[in-house]
Amino acid sequence: MQKILIVDDNRSVLNLLRTILTAQGWGVETAMTPERVSELTAEEKFDLIICDINLEAEQTGLDLLRQLRDLCPIILITGAGTLETAVEAEREGAWDIIAKPFDVDGIVATVRRVLAEKHEKGELVADENFINISEADLLGRSPQMVSLYKKIARVAPTNSTVLVTGESGTGKELVARAVHKYSLRTGAAFIPINCGALTETLLESELFGHKRGAFTGAINDRRGLWEEAGGGTLFLDEIGETSQAMQVKLLRALQEKEIRRVGDSRPTRVDTRIIAATNRDLEDEVKAGRFREDLFYRLNVVTLQIPPLRERRSDIPLLAERFIRRAAVNSGRQLKFSEDALKLIISYDWFGNVRELESAIEHAALNTLSVTINPEDLPDKMQTATVRARAAAVRSPLADLYADFPSLDELERRYLVYLLEALGGSRTRAAEILRINRRTLYRMAERFGINLEGE
Fold it and tell me: For residues 41 and 35, what is the distance between their CA atoms, to the nearest angstrom?
């Protein structure tokens, strides 16, 4: 029987994991302290150790990982995952990182994979290509973000081309900078360019440079950003906005690892890692004939998909706290959220994602007359959206009459039309229900341009 050691200072977590894993037929031991871990690993051999990163002890899960990684594969579990943690865990040889709250099927599948791989290979080799960790700008502890951190940690040390996808405002450039930061190119330049912000001619000159006399105004030779990023990383933001002609030139530069300056007959060899980003679905763009299929596959070696903020609401308070601290520094006063304001921030859908969240909190910080940000200090559209959501939740059969928040006059007109239709055009019955006489009913209809027909 394969044996698993679970390490966590929370007895409820230990019991949960023990129940999940013993139900699969595995032998399970548990430990709440590093000292107990030392005793158990000295007494018997384990096929796998599952350990919480944040133990309330002098030694953390990462410390135990360093000590025990030669004994067997180790999976770390975390309720406060960060990119730095993921990178260090990968660097130190963790087999995987699992985020709390647990997905039972996911845990079982992960344990099965590691035990099967250990059985087939005999042992697992730690990846030694990761550099030392430092602070990053990415923030989030949700399972979706922990998964993203793990992918960044794994792809960063390679030279593979990376495609970063996600909605506008999700932080695609931050992800690209993180890949560069944890790569072996970290000491060289990271140069971003927005492909959608320049005309095709200007973009070509910016990327590849030009020779003197290549066009009017080219009075000197000039290196392009592709060369400037040599040895480092070039970030092509909004790659989906490029023309077909430019896509051909990008494809050649990626395939041949050389560029040709505008007006130059000779190519120049370059060693530049490319990270591209888009908020479009490039597969759909390929099908529509707007994006070259060969360039798509050249870019799509590794894809990092950033989840929208509304799909990781547990991260919203963390981000909101970061942004309110920045706003407090800018305004020169302490700021905090009221309970109702924070509830509104968490419930809002944030189609502009992190960028929209930051803008909304900056707006609120400028709007509030006190140190507490209340719902009314937030942008009006957030409060309107909340009212709409509440209205939808208590929708009545007549909800279509007022779903778009009409004026009182418009609401009166709609109700009259609805009433007449429901009564088959009966003016007498309509007047009775409205508790007005027929003359008043006619005046109402005339005011609203309604032609009364019926009895």
Answer: 10
